[in-house]
């Protein structure tokens, strides 16, 4: 579609099956052909999509950023698109682990390891980048769009269509406390605030940018207020 943009497919190992076969998530690296512009930016944007999305559905968002010279790493989360065999879509905790493995993969890639990394997540992807990336200062910026604060409390219980979809796809609606804390940005952020020095906390929190629509019908705006 865009003659001045190149796309290469990547696969990142995220675990093994019961039979010992490697499991991979599949993604794209997207950038301009003009290496001079790309190298002047030295910016890598890691895109994490929402529950019902795939790496392709967010093209409207990341293609304009690639045209500005940013390098884009976008991948299908486990259970979606080309990463269907990596696991189930409903494995949100493992999605966070997968994100951490993507960041570790970047750190070892000669082409990318010295780029400034920004992680951008939408909905469940926003939980992923906050819970999986807040404590990793290798990530220069975290942009969370429509993030829940407390996972268990803010599942859209009063939207029967969404809840039915979650049930049919095996989403865990009643996690235990340990699981809920790992899936709740508010808990992750509060724990960091208590355990880090004030200077380090300020440095970490300044990297985070929260975006939320006041009229969000699925993830209520109060989540934004709680995370702030």
From TrEMBL:
Pfam families according to UniProt: Hydrolase_4 (PF12146)
All residue ranges annotated as the Serine aminopeptidase S33 domain in the record: 41-164
UniProt-listed Gene3D superfamilies: alpha/beta hydrolase (3.40.50.1820)
InterPro entries, per database record: AB_hydrolase_fold (IPR029058), Hydrolase_4 (IPR022742)
Name of this chain's protein: Serine aminopeptidase S33 domain-containing protein
Source organism of this protein record: marine sediment metagenome
């Amino acid at each position: 579609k865009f003659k001045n943009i190149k796309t290469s497919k990547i696969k990142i190992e995220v675990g093994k099956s019961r039979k010992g076969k490697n499991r991979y998530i599949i993604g794209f690296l997207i950038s301009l052909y003009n290496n001079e512009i790309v190298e002047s930016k030295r910016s890598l944007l890691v895109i994490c999509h929402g529950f019902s999305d795939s790496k392709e559905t967010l093209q409207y968002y990341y293609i304009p950023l690639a045209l500005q010279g940013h390098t884009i790493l976008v991948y299908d989360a486990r259970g979606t698109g080309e990463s269907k065999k990596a696991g189930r879509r409903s494995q949100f905790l493992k999605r966070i682990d997968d994100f951490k493995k993507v960041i570790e993969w970047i750190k070892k890639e000669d082409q990318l390891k010295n780029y400034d990394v920004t992680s951008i997540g939408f909905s469940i992807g926003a939980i992923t980048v906050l819970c999986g990336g807040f404590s990793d200062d290798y990530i220069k910026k975290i942009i969370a769009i429509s993030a829940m604060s407390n996972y268990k409390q803010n599942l859209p219980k009063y939207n029967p269509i969404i809840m039915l979809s979650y049930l049919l796809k095996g989403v865990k609606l009643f996690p235990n406390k340990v699981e809920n804390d790992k899936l709740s940005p508010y808990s992750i952020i509060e724990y960091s605030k208590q355990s880090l020095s004030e200077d380090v906390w300020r440095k970490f929190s300044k990297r985070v940018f929260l975006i939320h629509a006041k009229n969000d019908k699925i993830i209520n705006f109060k989540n934004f207020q709680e995370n702030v």
